[in-house]
Design brief:
heterodimer, A: alpha/beta, Amidase signature (AS) enzymes, 11-stranded mixed sheet, 16 helices, 11 strands, B: alpha+beta, Arc Repressor Mutant, subunit A, 3 domains, 8-stranded mixed sheet, protein biosynthesis (chain B), EC 6.3.5.- (chain B), transferase (chain B)
Chain lengths: 486, 484
């Protein structure tokens, strides 16, 4: 039951093999047994899940099943969920019960899905290993000594461990794709503006985007069908029709032009990762695609530009956590300034403080032009690199991460941690969609193939990933932990 | 030494949108604290702003009214600072690309001349909440009802040279925004607030002196008083050998003084940057043209029309165009009665007097413009005389009757112009007043003119005021002179 994809589960539910209640109970049981080891959930919503499952079973019996009716999933704890604790992985919000649903949460509920709870994450989505959570690090189900990636590490680990068939993540600099790669699942970061950000706790507003994390490209398509679309509550969410993302699945890839950015195969790339990615490219060639090398000349500016823009936005976005209206407030403040200082000092973790400091500095008078403005100019150049490349090829492929999942505690230095995102971060700066697809194993640790497309080509990306999954079974590999506790 | 005062104003106008600038919460004034603050206004995690189109249209209308450039693109920026009544830790404002560019406002000076004050720009922003320091036992209460109310901040050039000019400028802005219907202009409720930049320099010097910014100047009167105090303070300081420091000062109306709040060194670094949650506002020409075509007649245009087309005096034109309500009322009275001068006399005379006595504004006038216009018509067509007209006005004011004609009919105030009827009343009065007739007869002919007043009064009394006074005069004179 816990090994199936969403598409398979729907068939089973339709066939009456089991009810949504049975499925939900089964998965809640697995969470109860395994979450202690993995720490992938911050909050498990047993009661709400069971009543949603009952409602779904009723709807199915009445012939009113929607696209996701009765399907369990988990939400990264960055999505505001009405009457449920929503922490963003921070002590600052340890007591915050959201009074409203994020648009994504609302849409998924309306489609009939059953949320099992809120998954662990790096605090305010700042991190690449899930070690920056107030609720402790998440373990990688493939190897409990390894990180699951971040910041959507809890979502990735939960899907990989068979606690839930799919989960929703967010991606600001790679936070869906890198954990998907580390945990051997399929993740999609949609085009910026494709999915509403309303109710998604902001880290860096011009980069944040929500997306699906699942066991197959087909499942990601099913979820994106529900998540995508204009939202009157988010001005940056585009008014553009939403295609049926499953419709293109099954289109042959003959004639597909694949570009390999030379900058993504340089120094620092783990040989096993490179070998797996090159092996995957061969599969595509066998499916009729042509491959050529392309260049994204401004790639090496992506991390510096990101670490100006994202912290600048974050420093402003996180100003609302001041102890006045909600969230953590220090005990017995002597005056206003004391309350601000201690509430924020106690409520935020080190990485969040670091980025607030960086952002505050780069926006300061006398530094704004040199940092923020320059970074925005660089951002345009990076975007142009991709637009130029997509004049020549249909998709770009490369590794999602320079290495497989690293050990917990291995990257103590913040800058070496930042460099983990070297292949994912430019995609957010350019606003284009990207996926990570399981493409191999380095020992017991998965390797992810990254697939990139131009703006709003999610349907094509999903099919390109789907065709690979028709030809290979990397996406069907499960960690031993998922099996032994079956 | 002779000193010259240099003044620039930043006027914050609350726009009269139904909902807030970035949320759907109501903007109405006076509700229970925190009952008109939604998730967006509270700055809850995850919320996003959505720009209110009405606020944009109002800002553009203002720009068009002051003949300003309306840039095709304007951008919202975040102004970052911490304050308990600023929920998000930043104010969404427009720093670099405001919605309204360079424009100018014409102000009327007391000597009857006008002066143009340049407007540097006007930008949209959100208002903050309010901190309440009373009733919380040493704590501070926060009311976020006002948070997110749209503001248009209008920034002038330092073109004003006296407190009077500054007040005239503020009045002109008040008049424009109320004419446009984009603000209720209620200064007591904070719908219009003003920061004043003041400096002094020796007369003839070209460079500006160091300026102080005075905050919290919230009435026409306070603007004049705050400037007067501040000019005196700066001049005294300089004449005593000191220097003015650039600082923000607070005006205290109770003590009638300004006090230092913070100096330039203590000023915040607001770390402005473009708000990533809002798209740039792009206005196409058709949208701007549509708003321009639908602008109402503005105060300056109205004043000119009253003076040039209707032949009113400069004074009348300026008084009657001061507010849109007054001008609209006058225009309707004039349209109904067809005589601008009569309309002006009545609106500024009888009506203004009655309104003043009762402390009412023109919008609360118990006598409508139509009623007044019809009343004037009845005077002009001789249906009633001037004395009866005042009675009719009073009756309408008191709600006795729905129109002038009703009152005239009900109270029998229709003027008597029948010569036979008037002659009969005159004969009776003459018969009843032998002593006065004798006096009249004995008087020198050039003194008789004054003495006729008595007989007119008696006849008018006999007619209960309805006899036509000219006819009474004429016939009396004939009859009395015939007795001599």
């Amino acid at each position: 039951m816990h090994d199936k994809t969403l598409a398979e589960l729907t068939r089973s539910l339709d066939a009456g093999e089991f009810s949504s209640r049975e499925l939900t109970q089964h998965l809640l049981g697995r969470i109860d047994r395994l979450n202690g080891k993995l720490n992938s959930f911050i909050t498990v919503t047993h009661d709400q899940a069971l009543s949603a499952a009952d409602a779904a079973d009723k709807a199915r019996a009445a012939g009113q099943a929607g696209p996701l009716t009765g399907l369990p999933l988990a939400l990264k704890d960055i999505f505001c969920t009405r009457d449920v604790k929503t922490t963003a992985g921070s002590r600052m919000l340890d007591t915050f019960i959201a009074p409203y649903d994020a648009t994504v949460v609302e849409k998924l509920a309306e489609a009939g899905s059953v949320s099992l709870g809120k998954t662990n994450m790096d605090e305010f989505a700042m991190g690449s290993s899930n070690e920056n959570s107030h609720y402790g690090p998440v373990k990688n189900p493939w190897d409990l000594a390894a990180v699951p990636g971040g910041s959507s590490g809890g979502s990735a680990a939960a899907v990989a461990a068979g606690l839930v068939p799919a989960a929703i993540g967010t991606d600001t600099g790679g936070s869906i794709r890198q954990p998907a790669a580390f945990c051997g699942i399929t993740g999609l970061k949609p085009t910026y503006g494709r999915v509403s950000r309303y109710g998604m706790i902001a880290y860096a507003s011009s980069l944040d985007q929500a997306g699906p994390m699942a066991r197959s490209a087909e499942d990601c398509a099913l979820l994106l069908n529900v998540m995508a679309g204009h939202d009157l509550r988010d001005s940056t969410c585009v008014q553009r029709g939403v295609p049926d993302y499953t419709e293109e699945l099954g289109t042959a890839l003959s004639g597909l032009k694949i570009g390999l950015p030379s900058e993504y195969f340089g120094d620092g790339l783990d040989p096993e990762v490179e070998a797996a990615v090159r092996e995957a490219i061969k599969v595509y060639e066998s499916l009729g695609a042509s491959v050529r090398e392309v260049s994204l000349p401004h790639t090496h500016y992506a991390i510096p530009a990101y670490y100006v823009i994202a912290p600048a936005e974050a420093s402003s976005n996180l100003s609302r956590y001041d102890g006045v209206r909600f969230g953590h407030r220090c005990d017995n403040p002597v005056d206003l300034i004391d309350m601000y200082k201690r509430s924020r000092a106690e409520g935020f973790g080190d990485e969040v403080k670091r980025r607030i400091l960086i952002g505050t500095h780069t926006l300061s008078e006398g530094f704004f032009d040199a940092y923020y403005k320059k970074a925005q100019q660089v951002r345009r150049l990076i975007r142009q690199d991709f637009l130029d490349a997509f004049e020549e090829v249909d998709v770009l492929m490369g590794p999602a991460s320079p290495t497989p999942a690293f050990d917990l505690g291995a990257n103590k230095d913040p800058v070496s941690m930042y460099l983990q995102d070297i292949y994912t971060i430019a995609i957010n700066l350019a606003g284009i969609p990207g996926m990570s697809v399981p493409a191999g194993l380095a020992g017991s640790r998965p390797i992810g193939l990254q697939i990139l497309g131009s703006h709003f080509t999610e349907a094509r990306l999903l099919n390109v990933a789907h065709q690979f999954q028709q030809a290979t079974d990397w996406h069907r590999q499960r960690p031993a932990l998922a099996e032994e506790n079956a | 030494m002779q000193w010259e005062t240099v003044i620039g104003l930043e006027v914050h106008v609350q726009l009269a949108t139904r909902s807030k600038i970035f949320s759907g919460a109501s903007t109405s004034f006076g509700a229970e604290p925190n009952t008109q603050a939604c998730a967006v206004d509270l700055g809850l995690p995850g919320v996003l702003p959505v720009l209110n189109e009405q606020a944009v249209a109002m800002a553009v209308k203002f720009g068009l009214a002051i003949h300003a450039e309306i840039p095709e693109v304007s951008v919202f920026d975040r102004k970052n600072y911490f304050y308990p009544d600023l929920p998000k830790g930043y104010q969404t404002s427009q720093m670099y690309q405001p919605i309204v560019g360079v424009g100018e406002v014409e102000i009327a000076l007391e000597d009857g001349t006008t002066k143009r004050v340049r407007v540097h720009h006007a930008h949209l922003e959100e208002d903050a909440g309010k901190s309440l320091h009373e009733d919380f036992h040493g704590m501070t209460g926060i009311d976020l009802n006002r948070a997110g109310t749209p503001l248009l901040e209008i920034v002038s050039e330092p073109d004003m040279r006296s407190a009077k000019e500054a007040a005239a400028y503020l009045k002109a802005i008040h008049s424009i925004v109320t004419y446009l219907g984009i603000s209720d202009g209620n200064m007591a409720e904070g719908s219009m607030r003003c920061d004043v930049n003041v400096s002094v320099r020796p007369k003839g010097q070209e460079t500006f002196g160091t300026r102080a910014e005075i905050k919290n100047v919230n009435s026409f009167r306070f603007v004049e008083r705050a400037i007067a105090f501040e000019v005196e303070r700066q001049v005294e300081l300089i004449e005593d050998g000191g220097t003015v420091v650039q600082e923000t000062r607070l005006y205290d109306p109770e003590r009638d003084e300004t006090r230092s709040m913070r100096t330039k060194e203590e000023a915040n670094d607001y770390r402005y940057f473009p708000c990533p949650d809002l798209l740039p506002v792009v206005l196409d020409q058709a949208y701007i043209d549509h708003l321009r075509d639908n602008l109402p007649e503005l105060p300056a245009e109205k004043r000119a029309r009253f003076e040039n087309e209707l032949g009113l005096s400069a004074y009348d034109a300026s008084v009657l165009s001061a507010t849109r309500e007054m001008a609209d009322f006058f225009d309707e009275v004039k349209d109904v009665c067809g005589d601008a001068k009569q309309a002006a006399n009545w609106v500024q005379g009888e009506l203004a007097g009655a309104l003043n006595r009762e402390g009412l504004t023109i919008t609360a006038s118990p006598v409508s413009a139509r009623q007044l216009g019809e009343l004037i018509t009845r005077v002009m067509d001789d249906t009633i005389n001037g004395k009866a007209a005042k009675q009719v006005f009073q009756a309408l004011w008191n709600g006795q009757g729905t129109s002038a004609d009703d009152v005239i009919e009900a109270q029998g105030l229709k003027q008597v112009t029948d010569t036979g009827a008037i002659e009969a009343m005159i004969d009776q009065v003459i018969a009843d007043s032998p002593a006065q007739v004798a006096q009249y007869r004995d008087a020198e002919p050039d003194k008789r003119g004054k003495m006729i007043g008595y007989f007119v009064g008696q006849v008018m009394k006999a007619s209960r005021g309805t006899a036509n006074p000219q006819q009474v005069n004429q016939l009396l004179k004939q009859k009395l002179d015939a007795l001599c």
